[in-house]
């Protein structure tokens, strides 16, 4: 390395260049150049002779790590053993219920008489609760519903002129092979399609859908999407308070939640965290959350029985039947129902792939109506056969008429008198109902609760979520403390020499070690909350974007402030940086702003990225850009022109 003339010492007039030396570390007396090897030797104690020794060390480390990982994966298990144990929130009531549980069991063993007694009162309670469940009064009809999506350059029709209606007290089963378009139909009817073209008439009492349609309908997704850290009671109350009409007093909503919890037989586990529940209980919570909102129109369910054993499936469907009997209108897709299950339904809407209806009508005693329809067309149902299975099998296999032509069940349905009857019925409902129900609700709003209530409720829930997921908070504190200590004590009590001045810059720069870890923790958290919001809570109009973003930002603030204080204390004073209050205060302010920025940065990246893959691809880009272009590595004026004007 050639020494720059300005770095030669001593400097001054009349100095003999022969006795000038280089100020770089590793320089020999009087030399104007420094060899690279000498520089590395003095500054970092690197020598060429270490090359192969270091190579061996790296290999040895790799082997060591692999061995440790192998042993650890074999012997240590981080999964909670014996899954399925309920996790209760820490509260007085929860503790009490856990304590009471064994004594309850003893009671059952002690005598049958008491239990039969309690079941009688339970039945009575249930009757009362069912009476209170809001019953739908309106009739929902749909006519010629079509749904087309852009697909591989062309278009694909997923629903083809589907007709039908849902009346209060009537339970409609939506059956069809996998991929027939059952979920698509439910999503379309509940106005949840975000892409594609929907056409056809969907009317409530013969009138177009009001702004509050979406919150007036309950929709139970196939996947139970919940905030896993909430308890059952909290989940239901959240839904009740934000989705029931704003005029209803809060206490009344909470009393209503009590009833729903009793009705769903969730009383004993009401304080258990949703994430710890079993499949059936989760399904009950999903239904409960929708019921808590008092859906005044309709209840949609997408495969509520999938994944359940036949007992649980039966108990869910029986529960739905009770709801229907109490006056709720229910449309429910059902996959491979047993004959006992299908008997519980009043009507069947059967779909063929492509969204073609091939039957919509009553089930009848033991499926007699369905059997009759197919028998009239020459296909006999064997006695004791499951009706649902029968129609699916019939639709799937080609049937030949006596004259040899094949029956196309879709065309057959369109031409059938049954279809004409359905269309006539829809027309009749439309003209009937539109005359009766004229008092329209002008002030219907999209969301039931005002924005302020949405925001406070959600912020509260989010704080609870953070609190119950302490690893997230610990993680952040841990990073702040460890990096603070490392940074502060590595550069312990910096002085004023040239080297120390450089170290001052470097110690400030080292705060950049923090963002990657924190952003990586923020991203999944935000992503899950966003998914929950987009998948369920926005479509059912629980809260809007303002509440969502505000709550996400606010919930990050306390932990950011606490960790910034810790980091700053552990770093700033040990490093011996200026202690006068204006300098120290300014650095503290900047540190705090930086911590606040890190969280919102992660959320920002997450919010615009369409998927997790995109996030993991853009994150390194941001981190690298961030460390290279902040002015420490290279100042703005020294930056190559290529970067200077756009970075
Ligand atoms: N947005 C979409 N774009 C293209 N095809 C879709 C879209 N949504 C659903 N489909 C297709 O439509 C068919 C019906 O899907 P779905 O309604 O989920 O069936 P299922 O009756 O099993 O609930 C499937 O073949 C599915 O691949
Ligand atoms: Mg489906």
Secondary-structure blueprint:
Elements: E1 8-9, E2 21-22, H1 36-44, H2 51-75, H3 92-110, H4 112-132, E3 140-151, E4 154-166, E5 171-176, H5 182-189, E6 197-204, H6 213-216, E7 217-220, H7 232-243, H8 250-263, H9 279-292, E8 298-301, H10 310-325, E9 330-333, H11 339-343, E10 347-352, E11 356-362, H12 368-376, H13 387-396, H14 409-415, H15 417-436, H16 451-468, H17 470-490, H18 498-509, H19 514-537, H20 545-572, H21 581-608, H22 612-628, H23 641-644
Parallel strand pairs: 5-9, 5-10, 7-8, 8-9
Antiparallel strand pairs: 1-2, 3-4, 3-6, 10-11
Bound molecules: adenosine-5'-diphosphate (ADP) and magnesium ion.
Adenosine-5'-diphosphate is lined by residues 149, 151, 156, 158, 176, 178-184.
Hetero compounds: adenosine-5'-diphosphate, magnesium ion
Tally of individual domains: 3
**Please, what is the CATH homologous superfamily of the largest domain?**
P-loop containing nucleotide triphosphate hydrolases
Strand content: 5-15%
For the termini, the CA-CA separation is 31 Å
Description:
Strand 8, helix 10 (310-325) and strand 9 form a beta-alpha-beta unit. This protein has 23 helices and 11 strands. 53% of the residues lie in helices and 11% in strands. It folds into 3 domains: 5-46, no CATH class; 140-225 and 297-436, Rossmann fold; 451-644, no CATH class. The chain has helices spanning 36-44, 51-75, 92-110, 112-132, 182-189, 213-216, 232-243, 250-263, 279-292, 310-325, 339-343, 368-376, 387-396, 409-415, 417-436, 451-468, 470-490, 498-509, 514-537, 545-572, 581-608, 612-628, 641-644, and strands at residues 8-9, 21-22, 140-151, 154-166, 171-176, 197-204, 217-220, 298-301, 330-333, 347-352, 356-362. A 6-stranded mixed β-sheet has the order 7-8-9-5-10-11, with helices on both faces. A 3-stranded antiparallel β-sheet has the order 4-3-6, with helices on both faces. The chain has 647 residues and is an alpha/beta fold. The chain is elongated and about 120 Å long. Mean pLDDT is 85; it is low at 101-116. Helix 20 runs antiparallel to helix 21. Bound molecules: adenosine-5'-diphosphate and magnesium ion. Magnesium ion (MG) binds at residues 182-183, 222, 302-303.
């Amino acid at each position: 390395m050639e020494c720059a003339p300005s770095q030669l010492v001593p400097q001054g007039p009349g100095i003999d260049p022969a006795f000038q030396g280089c100020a770089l570390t590793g320089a020999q007396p009087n030399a104007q150049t420094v060899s690279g090897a000498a520089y590395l030797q003095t500054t970092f104690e690197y020598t060429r002779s270490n090359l192969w020794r270091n190579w061996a060390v790296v290999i040895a480390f790799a082997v060591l790590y692999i061995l440790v990982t192998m042993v650890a994966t074999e012997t240590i298990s981080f999964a909670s053993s014996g899954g399925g144990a309920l996790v209760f929130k820490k509260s007085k009531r929860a503790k009490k219920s856990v304590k009471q549980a064994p004594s309850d069991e003893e009671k059952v063993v002690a005598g049958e008489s008491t239990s039969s007694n309690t079941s009688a009162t339970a039945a009575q309670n249930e009757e009362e609760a069912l009476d209170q469940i809001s019953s739908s009064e309106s009739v929902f009809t749909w006519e010629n519903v079509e749904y087309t999506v852009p697909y591989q350059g062309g278009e694909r029709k997923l629903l083809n002129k589907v007709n039908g209606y849902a009346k209060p007290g009537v339970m409609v089963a939506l059956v069809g092979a996998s991929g027939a378009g059952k979920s698509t139909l439910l999503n379309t009817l509940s106005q949840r399609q975000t892409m594609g073209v929907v056409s056809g008439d969907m009317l409530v009492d013969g009138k177009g859908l009001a702004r509050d349609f979406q919150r007036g309908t309950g929709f139970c997704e196939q996947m139970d999407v919940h905030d896993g850290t909430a308890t059952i009671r909290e989940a239901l109350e959240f839904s009740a308070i934000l989705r029931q009409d704003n005029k209803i007093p809060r206490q009344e909503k909470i009393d209503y939640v009590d009833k729903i919890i009793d009705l769903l037989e969730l009383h004993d586990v009401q304080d258990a965290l949703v994430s710890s529940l079993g499949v059936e209980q989760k399904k009950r919570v999903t239904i409960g959350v929708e019921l808590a909102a008092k859906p005044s129109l309709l209840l949609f369910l997408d495969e509520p029985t999938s994944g359940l054993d036949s007992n649980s499936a039966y108990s869910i469907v029986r529960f739905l039947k009770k709801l229907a009997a109490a006056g709720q209108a229910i449309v429910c897709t059902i996959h491979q129902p047993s004959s006992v299950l299908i008997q519980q339904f009043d009507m069947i809407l059967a779909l063929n792939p492509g969204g073609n209806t091939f039957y919509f009508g009553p089930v009848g005693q033991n499926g007699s109506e369905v059997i009759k329809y197919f028998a009239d067309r020459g296909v006999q149902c064997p006695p004791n056969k499951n009706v649902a299975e029968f129609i699916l099998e019939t639709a799937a296999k080609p049937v030949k008429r006596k004259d040899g032509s094949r029956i196309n069940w879709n065309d057959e349905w369109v031409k059938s008198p049954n279809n004409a009857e359905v269309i006539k019925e829809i027309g009749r409902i439309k003209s009937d109902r539109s005359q009766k129900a004229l008092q329209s609700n002008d002030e219907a709003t999209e969301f039931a609760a005002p924005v302020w209530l949405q925001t406070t409720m959600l912020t509260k829930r989010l704080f609870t979520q953070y609190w119950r997921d302490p690893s997230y908070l610990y993680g952040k504190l841990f990073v702040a403390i460890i990096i603070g200590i490392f940074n502060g004590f590595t550069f312990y009590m910096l002085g004023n020499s040239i080297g120390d001045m450089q170290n001052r810059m470097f110690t400030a720069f080292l705060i950049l070690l923090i963002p990657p870890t924190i952003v990586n923790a923020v991203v999944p958290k935000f992503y899950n909350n966003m998914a929950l919001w987009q998948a369920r809570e926005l479509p059912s109009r629980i809260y809007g974007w303002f509440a969502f973003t505000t709550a996400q930002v606010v919930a990050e603030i306390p932990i950011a402030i606490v960790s910034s204080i810790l980091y700053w204390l552990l770093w700033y004073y040990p490093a011996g940086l200026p202690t006068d209050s204006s300098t120290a205060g300014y650095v503290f302010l900047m540190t705090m702003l930086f911590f606040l920025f890190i969280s919102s940065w992660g959320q920002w990246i997450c919010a615009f990225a369409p998927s997790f893959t995109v996030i993991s691809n853009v994150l390194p880009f941001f981190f690298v850009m961030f460390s290279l272009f902040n002015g420490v590595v290279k100042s703005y004026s020294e930056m190559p022109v290529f970067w200077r004007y756009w970075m």
